[in-house]
Amino acid sequence: MSPYDPNTPLRTAVVGTGSIARGAHLPALATLAAEGAVRIVAVADVAEEAARAAAEEFAVADALTDLDTLLARARPDLVVLCTPPSLHREQAIAAVRAGAHVWCEKPPCPSLADYDAVTAAADPAPGSPATSFVFQHRFGSGARHVRRLLRAGAFGRPLVAHCQTTWYRDAAYYAVPWRGRWETEGGGPAMGHGIHQTDLLLDLMGPWREVRAMAARLVHDVQTEDVSTAQVRFAGGAVATVVNSVLSPDEVSRIRIDCERATIELTHLYGYRNADWRITPAPGVPAATAAAWNDFGPDEPSSHLAQLRALVADIRTGVLHPTSGEGGRRVVEFTAALYKSAFTDATVRAGEIGPGDPFYAAMHGGAPDRLPVDAREEDQPA
């Protein structure tokens, strides 16, 4: 049973008041606050001016500069972490131990070891405070509709899939000190950009079995990769490609799944609506069936607000949110496997990376300089 009174707004605090907090989290919280579902009781940022500016913009009473003071003074039911990935482990554990649920921005943690430590810090009893992660693409109406049909077997077996996150980021983007560094971001576009699309692919396709990948640093003066590709085999036998890039001027996010009876396509950039999905039936599928497949119902765009509504409902009913625990771990494990395969030139299988494996403790496997600096250098004649 949930300890939360359904008629009392969840006391909510935001830690980190940068662009993702002010552009996505705080507006979503403000919407739910207007509906009486939450109350924003405090914000915190190491930069006092940033915290005060966010508090003023969103009419929050308390602006602080550290998490410990926030937890003691505001006593939140829910803490929203919008801080760099290297801080997520320590902050999430502190908040959960103080009795607060946590909703944490991506990338979840810089390593599988960090992720498992966050999960282990939560009391396993139903309804106890736990950490969940921002994977908002699972929560739009389009994904719900397609997931339901896939689970019901309406399309037949999934056979071939493609997952593409090809974006563009310039040098100014990487001027932010924590970006592009293994220690603070945990990885490049496979970790910090494509992880949303990859998470949605895994959510739709089911468990993955093995991955074979390549990664390179072709343009940016950073530690991590700026492009990666992977071949994936799923437990059901389907095969897929996953491409992540920050080198692509024509930006797009895309998922395509070819099944026995239909092709499912999603094309968007940072978020989708129902109109961004298309289901093409195979020859012989009745027109009425195809029409029903393409009737997505009321449109709920993928967004932080869509996931936050689901999260608040789960907290109130004492249900573990789908992006907590194993539900969030699978994409972190997949990303670790992608890096291990790219850096070792070997196929990596699900469940292979655990304590004692260097890629469990760090996405670079303990050798941050392992990645080729520039593939063009290898192609030059002697």
TrEMBL record:
Matches recorded under InterPro entries: Gfo/Idh/MocA-like_OxRdtase_N (IPR000683), Gfo/Idh/MocA_Oxidoreductase (IPR052515), GFO_IDH_MocA-like_dom (IPR055170), NAD(P)-bd_dom_sf (IPR036291)
Gfo/Idh/MocA-like oxidoreductase N-terminal domain location: 10-123
Domain of life of the native organism: Bacteria
Annotated SUPFAM superfamilies: Glyceraldehyde-3-phosphate dehydrogenase-like, C-terminal domain, NAD(P)-binding Rossmann-fold domains
Domain GFO/IDH/MocA-like oxidoreductase: 144-265
Gene Ontology molecular function, alphabetical: nucleotide binding
Alphabetized PANTHER family for the sequence: D-GLUCOSIDE 3-DEHYDROGENASE, UDP-N-ACETYL-2-AMINO-2-DEOXY-D-GLUCURONATE OXIDASE
Protein name: Putative oxidoreductase
Native organism: Actinacidiphila reveromycinica
Taxonomic lineage of the native organism: Bacteria, Bacillati, Actinomycetota, Actinomycetes, Kitasatosporales
